[in-house]
Design brief:
Two copies of one chain form a homodimer. With 330 residues, the first copy, chain A, is of the alpha/beta class. Chain A has two domains: 152 residues, Quinone Oxidoreductase, Chain A, domain 1 (Alpha-Beta Complex), CATH 3.90.180.10; 148 residues, NAD(P)-binding Rossmann-like Domain (Rossmann fold). Helices cover 24% and strands 25% of the residues of chain A. In chain A, strands 3, 4, 5, 6, 7, 14 and 15 form a seven-stranded mixed sheet that branches. A six-stranded parallel sheet of chain A has the order 10-9-8-11-12-13, sandwiched between helices. In chain A, α2 packs across α3 and α2 packs across α8. The longest helix of chain A has 13 residues. The model of chain A has no long low-confidence stretch (mean pLDDT 96).
Chain lengths: 330, 330
């Protein structure tokens, strides 16, 4: 049987158990050109909270009674598709379920001998690609620049900071609590800011005395404003996400946006899906950095599809270390 | 005697008479290399409200008891500087005063035979240059795109819209009241939105059914949010000013900034001072458009340096038609 998580209703604020249905269906049978994937790991990401509102973002909303959209990695256990033979492993939008039936077209082959499976939905998956293209293509960082990143201990931010270090930037990371700050230090960040125990505006001024050249924002809210107040001439503010705003309808707009004018700066939105054609190249470079020990990643893996909602909520409470992953194989 | 306006104190909210001193001094005498200018016209611009706060923006604040900073155009009446002979006309930062002593280095020669003097602080001065570089260099408009401009009947916005028309764009202007909307129509704007009598969000949706490619913002506040809600993929949002926010300390931050992510769009600040080296080229092109009847401008001229504050306030009440100018010559 295939256990799967369906969207039962759209949450107000933080998602609750009642917003989901744990459904069980027969394992689907494979038609011509199709593959059946047994999912091992499901990626839990902040953007999922956006997809369950009824607002069209860059993707259509997940429909009521539809399988919750999510990135996955798993093994092909039945195949009528030459591209993906039985026993091979694939990653893609498999959804929060134990088995995925797919035409294989949107599934990428991955090799479990080269990297542990969860890596393919982490640093070599969407979060890693987001970090890579966000800081390099959108951020256009140059050696010697100061890079500030919020959510610096998270799946995307931790990689953003490390890539910026590899490229010779000064890196300042923002995260909540001493444990995450220590993690950022271990990754080689030059300075860390604990937003739960420090005044963020003052801390940015202190750690970025010349101002911020690139601010990579994963959180939004007041922290975005504190960063905007400290940008340097021709700064780039990369809007990757705004996790602090995903469970409220009363969005905090950045009051200091006029500093973009004073500093002739740019604020731009980015989306990793636009870079799909270059994923492979990026993954190769990231893989090299990982082998050279320059890029470290950590997955925080929880077990059981039944625990989907309580695990998902760790994204918003911050109770997780590194990339959040749900193991769904039994 | 030289009548001049000094900043007496920094205003809270709208500037009052008491925030200014109408001072009278001896007409200064000319030293080696210097010129004495008899100012005819003073430019009144929204940015002046920023310069009298105590916050460093892109220029230092005007100091207490200093002459109020402003653009001017006037005649050289004494000269010990070969670049600017007696009888020639110059434009520059002469300040709100009847006579300016200058070393001439930051004064531009202008020719009253080619265009009426007020034009040199209007469409051929800072507002015109702001519009030109803002919409062409920063906006990077392409034929067939939809351009939305707020403050569309103002000194900058009216020129932005007309240049966008010249370049083959569809132009939608926002302004307050039927008279200003009629003015925008007379200038050739395709559609106009009266923010005092229409629901701006709905009006943008109706007039820009494909979405907004370039939004040129002079006003900030809710109108910026309504525009952000209607941007198209890869839109450019040019932050030129935010006149609705200059007399308050409680700045309205744009809540819809996350649409930059959905639409992979850019919000950028621009400042005309960065383009100084290209002013001459721009003025030539704008002058040609004016002679060809493609670019129309209007100055609203008030008289008397004594009426500085009440005239200045017309910027914020909207009680003016076109570029606001104060005639200070007696």
């Amino acid at each position: 049987m295939n256990k799967r998580i369906l969207l039962a209703s759209r949450p107000e604020g933080l998602p609750k158990e009642e917003n989901w249905t744990l459904d069980t269906q027969e394992i689907p049978s494979v038609g011509e050109g199709e593959i059946l994937i047994r999912n091992h790991y499901v990626s839990l990401d902040p953007a999922m909270r956006i997809w369950i509102t009824n607002v069209k973002s860059y993707l259509p909303p997940v429909g009521i009674d539809e399988v919750m959209r999510a990135g996955t990695v798993g093994e092909v256990i039945e195949s009528k598709n030459e591209s993906h033979p039985v026993g091979s492993f694939v990653s893609g939008w498999g959804g929060v379920q134990q088995y995925t039936l797919s035409d294989g077209k949107t599934m990428y082959s991955v090799d479990p001998k080269l990297a542990p499976l969860p890596t393919y939905i982490g640093s070599l998956g969407m979060p890693g690609m987001t970090a890579y293209f966000g800081i390099l293509q959108e951020g256009q960082i140059k050696e010697g620049e100061t890079v500030l990143v919020s959510g610096g201990a998270g799946a995307v931010g931790s990689i953003v900071g490390q890539i910026a270090k590899i490229k010779g930037c000064k890196v300042v990371g923002i995260a909540g609590g001493p444990e995450k700050c220590q993690y950022m230090k271990n990754l080689g960040f030059d300075e860390v800011i604990d937003y739960k125990n420090e005044h963020v505006y003052k801390a940015i001024r202190k750690t970025c005395p010349k101002g911020v050249d690139v601010y990579f924002d994963n959180v939004g809210g007041e922290i975005l404003d504190f960063a905007l107040a400290n940008i340097r001439m021709h700064a780039r503010v990369i809007i990757c996400g705004a996790i602090s705003q995903y469970n409220t309808n009363d969005i905090y707009g950045p009051k200091n946006y006029l500093n973009l004018l004073n500093k002739r700066a740019i604020m731009k939105g980015m989306l990793v899906l636009d870079y799909a054609k270059d994923y492979r190249k990026a993954a190769m470079e990231m893989g090299q950095w990982m082998m050279q020990g320059k890029l470290k990643t950590k997955e925080d893996i929880y077990e059981g599809i039944e625990n989907f909602n309580e695990t998902f909520l760790r994204l918003f409470s911050g109770q997780k270390k590194g990339k959040l992953v749900l193991k769904v194989i039994e």
